[in-house]
Structure formats: C-alpha cells, structure tokens
C-alpha cells in the first residue's frame, strides 16, 4: 500500500509542512519570546543614564524557557521518543516476517524483508546520531534553567554546539555508506560537478526499480 498512500503530492505537502513548522518554531524568539524586556529592566535598575547595549551571546539573548519548555520538551523530545517506538515496532515486524517459514512460491520474501531491515537499520542509525548530537546541548540548557547556580565548563558547551552543527554533515555520509542508491547518486554528483566528469554509461532507464 506504500505507493498508493505515499504519493508524490502527499510527500511534497508533508515536506512543506515540516519546513513551515521549523520556520515558525525557529523564529519564535523574533516574535517576542526572548530576553529583551528582561535585559531592559535589569539595566534600568542598575543605571538609567547609560545607553542600552545588548551583549550578543546566545544565552543572554535567547530565553532558556523557550529553549527547554518549548523547543526541547515539545519539538525535540516527544518526536524523538515517538520515532524510537516506531522503529522498535518496525524491527519487530520485520523480524517476525523473516522468522516465518514461507513456501518457494512467495517471490523470495526473505530477500525483500532483508532489504527492508537494512534500510530500517540505516534510518535508525540516523536517528541515533541525531539523539547523540542534540541531546547534550539540550541537557546543558536544562541545567542552565533548573540549576542557575551550577556552572558548566565552557568546553562542554562548545563540544555540544559542535555536535549539533556536525549532525547536518553526518546524514549524507550515513546514507552514502549504507544505501546503494544514495551512494551512486552522490558519486555521480561528485564526478559531474566537482571532478567535471560525466558517466555516459548511466541513464535514468538503467536505474534499478524500487521495491
């Protein structure tokens, strides 16, 4: 039922919704959920004659309530747990199918489900790398919010930030090493646009069909 349910139009709508939600969540501080008023009140209490200056640091400008309650507890942690449950169910169903005794006239289901298991493992690896990259920074944000007196080493913060940025570069590498079609496409792009080579032997008609 996959091809009948996941049509190109529905996929495009789902992707567009993800981008729209991402923009709204990411731009929420610009709509007013920030520390601007708090900084103004603090400066007014200290001195009323000096010019209002904003110290350009992330934790100074961005509200930790936004980062923890809204960003982490709403848009990161629940989807992460939901995806984890979905993948566990997917692995369970695939293993059940692989363990079944099938007849010889069943179009080799072991080969099909073995391929599905490999793809599921690749996507689960992407999910694991996402959690590994983003959870440290969110944990540090929770410590900053719930334990203001606790001081975390700056090096840990820098490492956590580096991991979040590095996560964007991990996915293409995982796809290229784990999924043959992605690897072929990346090699074609690399040869064509970076090495100025064209593979004359490849054409859209020679691609292997989707399952």
TrEMBL record:
<feature type="transmembrane region" description="Helical">
    <location>
        <begin position="72"/>
        <end position="94"/>
    </location>
</feature>
<comment type="function">
    <text>Receptor for adenosine. The activity of this receptor is mediated by G proteins which inhibit adenylyl cyclase.</text>
</comment>
<keyword id="KW-0449">Lipoprotein</keyword>
<dbReference type="GO" id="GO:0045202">
    <property type="term" value="C:synapse"/>
</dbReference>
<keyword id="KW-1015">Disulfide bond</keyword>
<keyword id="KW-1003">Cell membrane</keyword>
<dbReference type="InterPro" id="IPR001634">
    <property type="entry name" value="Adenosn_rcpt"/>
</dbReference>
<dbReference type="GO" id="GO:0005886">
    <property type="term" value="C:plasma membrane"/>
</dbReference>
<dbReference type="GO" id="GO:0030425">
    <property type="term" value="C:dendrite"/>
</dbReference>
<dbReference type="InterPro" id="IPR001068">
    <property type="entry name" value="Adeno_A1_rcpt"/>
</dbReference>
<keyword id="KW-1133">Transmembrane helix</keyword>
<keyword id="KW-0472">Membrane</keyword>
<keyword id="KW-0807">Transducer</keyword>
<keyword id="KW-0564">Palmitate</keyword>
<feature type="transmembrane region" description="Helical">
    <location>
        <begin position="12"/>
        <end position="33"/>
    </location>
</feature>
<keyword id="KW-0675">Receptor</keyword>
<keyword id="KW-0812">Transmembrane</keyword>
<keyword id="KW-0325">Glycoprotein</keyword>
<comment type="similarity">
    <text>Belongs to the G-protein coupled receptor 1 family.</text>
</comment>
<feature type="domain" description="G-protein coupled receptors family 1 profile">
    <location>
        <begin position="1"/>
        <end position="175"/>
    </location>
</feature>
<keyword id="KW-0297">G-protein coupled receptor</keyword>
<dbReference type="GO" id="GO:0001609">
    <property type="term" value="F:G protein-coupled adenosine receptor activity"/>
</dbReference>
<protein>
    <recommendedName>
        <fullName>Adenosine receptor A1</fullName>
    </recommendedName>
</protein>
<feature type="transmembrane region" description="Helical">
    <location>
        <begin position="123"/>
        <end position="146"/>
    </location>
</feature>
<dbReference type="InterPro" id="IPR017452">
    <property type="entry name" value="GPCR_Rhodpsn_7TM"/>
</dbReference>
<feature type="transmembrane region" description="Helical">
    <location>
        <begin position="158"/>
        <end position="177"/>
    </location>
</feature>
<dbReference type="Pfam" id="PF00001">
    <property type="entry name" value="7tm_1"/>
</dbReference>
<dbReference type="InterPro" id="IPR000276">
    <property type="entry name" value="GPCR_Rhodpsn"/>
</dbReference>
């Amino acid at each position: 039922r996959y091809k009948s349910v996941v049509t190109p139009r529905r996929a495009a709508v789902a992707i567009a919704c993800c981008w729209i939600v991402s923009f709204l969540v990411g731009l929420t501080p610009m709509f007013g959920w920030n520390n601007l008023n708090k900084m103004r009140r603090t400066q007014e209490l200290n001195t009323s004659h000096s010019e209002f200056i904003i110290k350009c640091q992330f934790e100074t400008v961005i509200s930790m309530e936004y980062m923890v309650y809204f960003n982490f507890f709403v848009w990161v942690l629940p989807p992460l747990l939901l995806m984890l449950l979905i993948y566990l169910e997917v692995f369970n169903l695939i293993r059940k199918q692989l363990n079944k005794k099938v007849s010889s006239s069943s179009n080799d289901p072991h080969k099909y489900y073995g391929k599905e298991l490999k793809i599921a493992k690749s996507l689960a690896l992407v999910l694991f790398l996402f959690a590994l990259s983003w959870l440290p920074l969110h944990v540090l944000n929770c410590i900053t919010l719930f334990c203001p007196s606790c001081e975390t080493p700056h090096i840990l913060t820098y490492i956590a930030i580096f991991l979040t940025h590095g996560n964007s570069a991990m996915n293409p590498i995982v796809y290229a090493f784990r999924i043959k079609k992605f690897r072929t496409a990346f090699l074609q792009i690399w040869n064509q646009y970076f090495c100025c080579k064209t593979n004359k032997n490849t054409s859209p008609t020679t691609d292997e069909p989707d399952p």
